[in-house]
Amino acid sequence: MRCHVENGQKERMIPKQCSISTMEGFGKDLRMMIAFFTKEHADTHLGLIINMDWFQPFDSSLYSIELIYAVICNLPRTERYKSHNILTLAVIPGPKEPKLHEINNYLYPIINQLVHLWSGYYIVTHENKSGRFIRGAIIGCSSDVPATRKLCGFISARVACYRCYKLANFVNNQSNFGGFSDFSDWFVERDIDIIREKAYEWKKCQTEESRKNHVSQHHVRWSEIYNLDYFNPVRHCVVDPMHCLFLGVAKWIIMKLWIGGSILDDTKLKIMQKRADTIKIPSDLGRRPARIATGDGFSNFTADMWKTFIMIFAIPITWDFLDEVDKKILAYFVRACKILTSRELQKRELSEAFTKLVNMNKLIEQKYGQEKICPNLHLCLHICECALDYGPLSSFWCFGFERMNGILGTLIINFSVK
Ligand SMILES: [Zn+2]
Questions:
Q1: Which of 180-194, 196-210, 256-270, 293-307 has the lowest mean pLDDT?
Q2: Cα–ligand 1 centroid distance for 164 (angstroms)
Q3: Is the separation of the CB atoms in 227 and 111 below 8 Å?
Q4: Residue 97's pLDDT is what?
Q5: Does 198 map to a domain?
Q6: What is the pairing mode between strands 45-55 and 132-141?
Q7: What is the mean pLDDT of residues 320-346?
């Protein structure tokens, strides 16, 4: 890591984005935290992004393995998600995932070590036989929504947002996040002191029922992660763009609004597939969308396929099948994704991306109704804040962790065969 500082590489060891905005998340003493991440300490004061995920290694049986990973953000973006640089902190055996607060049993030893890491200790390295003093802190959690909720003790994302004060509306027992007339009232960062206080209160509840009531009222339960004094349960819980934008919003618009609403039918999907087949793209831009007209449409599309579809194919092959409002919805979403996925980000571009996502939400509500504003449509409004804290989406999205699942899954299956 030190080489990246000394060689003055183009990408700085301490990302530009790891500046004031991120540091605010570390607690009351901002000056102390700015002093924590300095060029002089670039290879001894570590910032970690952690991820919790689960996967099913076997095709023939239901068996879930849960994993907790970490990446070191001092490494350049091009390096930090390589499999040999990803730290596997825990492999939690199945057959079922630990539910909600049960995860604390597994978090406890990890958080204990992170408490020690924050205080610091000496590690013998190749260059320092007598040891170097290393400190480290979690500066982000990037997972899908259920895992983030579990890791930080939040109530279901169908009930309330964990970053702002937006509460779900319930119509016919279905939740939605529509209603933008009072946007400025609820799109406000939640008070982290209150979240912590309520999490501690949950821990003191004596009965299962009182705990349930407490969560319903205050939307948070205890997580061992709150033992990290510097941890900010709002700013450090990023909204993962892979799950939110591509597996969430992109899929929702195409499958629920347009295919579900008969705007795109089988005939149109077949035409779209033919058009897609004529578009040539460089192989490094991702996998071509090959199953647009298979099954109900977009069969088995992965996050990467949705990303490629939205960024490259959606407008040229879908445009003439859409009315003016849907054209705007698509154009706003594509523009926001293009800004957010670029390698360099300017603040004014982030502001444009945010405006496009808000307008997209409003148009969907206007045309399809409030009940179509799903949790991901709301959460995507927070991605620009995350990009302001952490930089371009590739700095914190889950694609690297997903690849790691694939690698570990192969190892487990091979092991079982032997
Ligand atoms: Zn929110």
A1: 293-307
A2: 4
A3: yes
A4: 78
A5: no
A6: parallel
A7: 94
Q: What is the pTM of this model?
A: 0.86
Collapsing DSSP to helix, strand or coil, 342 comes out as: coil
Q: 24 and 115 in one domain?
A: yes
168 to 177, 181, 194, 375: CA distances (angstroms): 5, 15, 20, 8
83 lies in the same domain as 43: yes
353-406: pLDDT as tens digits: 999 999 999 999 999 999 999 999 999 999 999 998 888 898 888 888 888 887
Amino acid, single-letter form, for residue 120: G
Q: How far is the CA of 161 from the centre of ligand 1 (A)?
A: 5
Place of tokens 């109900």: 296
Q: How far does the centroid of ligand 1 lie from the alpha carbon of residue 375, in Å?
A: 9
Q: Using the mean position of ligand 1's atoms as its centre, give its distance from the Cα of residue 293 in Å.
A: 35
391 and 253 within one domain = yes
**Which two structure tokens, joined as six digits, stand for 153?**
């003790």
Question: How far away, in angstroms, is 359 Cα from ligand 1 center?
Answer: 16
- The C-alpha atoms of residue 409 and residue 404 are separated, in whole angstroms, by 8
In a domain, 216, yes or no: no
